[in-house]
Design brief:
- The structure is a single chain.
- A two-stranded parallel ribbon has the order 1-2.
- About 60% of the residues lie in helices and about 5% in strands.
- The chain folds into two domains: about 60 residues, no CATH class; about 50 residues, no CATH class.
- The radius of gyration is 16 Å and the shape is globular.
- Helix 2 packs parallel to helix 4.
- The protein is mainly α and about 120 residues long.
- It is built from seven helices and two strands, in the order ααβααβααα.
- The two termini are about 20 Å apart.
- The N terminus is likely disordered.
Length: about 120
C-alpha cells in the first residue's frame, strides 16, 4: 500500500493546501470518516496541514483534530518505515516513470523488510 505522501511524491506534484484538501481530504478522508464515526484526525505541522485554507476546511467539516505541538518529534513509526523504503529505492537508483514499476518495487522492498526492524519500530513506541 502506498501512503498519500508517496502518491504525491511519485506523481511529482507539489502539495499545497488546496491540493491537500481536494485530492486527499475530500477525495479519501471525508468518505472514510463518513463510514467511521468518532475518529480523531492526526496531522503533523506540514505546511499543507497548517495552512489557513486547510484549517478552515477541517473546522467547517467538523473534523476532530489531535493537537500537534510545534517542533515535536515525529513519533509515528510509519514515517521511519517510509524513510527505510525510500533509502532502499535510492540504493537501487530507482528512476522508472512507470507507476506499475514503482508499485512492484515498493511491494518487493516492503516484503523484504526485516522482521527485527519492524519489531524495533513497534518497541520504540
Amino acid at each position: 500500500m502506498i501512503g498519500l505522501g508517496q502518491f504525491f511524491f511519485h506523481n511529482r506534484r507539489a502539495i499545497n493546501a488546496q491540493s491537500y484538501v481536494q485530492d486527499v481530504l475530500q477525495a479519501h478522508v471525508v468518505p472514510y470518516t463518513a463510514m467511521h464515526r468518532n475518529l480523531v484526525f492526526q496531522l503533523d505541522n506540514a505546511g499543507a496541514h497548517t495552512a489557513r485554507y486547510t484549517q478552515q476546511f477541517l473546522e467547517q467539516s467538523n473534523f476532530q483534530v489531535l493537537p500537534w505541538p510545534a517542533l515535536s518529534p515525529d513519533l509515528n513509526p510509519i514515517e521511519q518505515l517510509w524513510d527505510y523504503l525510500q533509502r532502499r529505492l535510492d540504493c537501487q537508483d530507482y528512476r522508472s516513470p512507470n507507476p506499475d514499476d514503482l508499485k512492484h518495487s515498493l511491494r518487493w522492498h516492503w516484503n523484504a523488510i526485516p522482521r527485527h526492524f519492524l519489531q524495533t519500530l513497534v518497541s520504540s513506541m
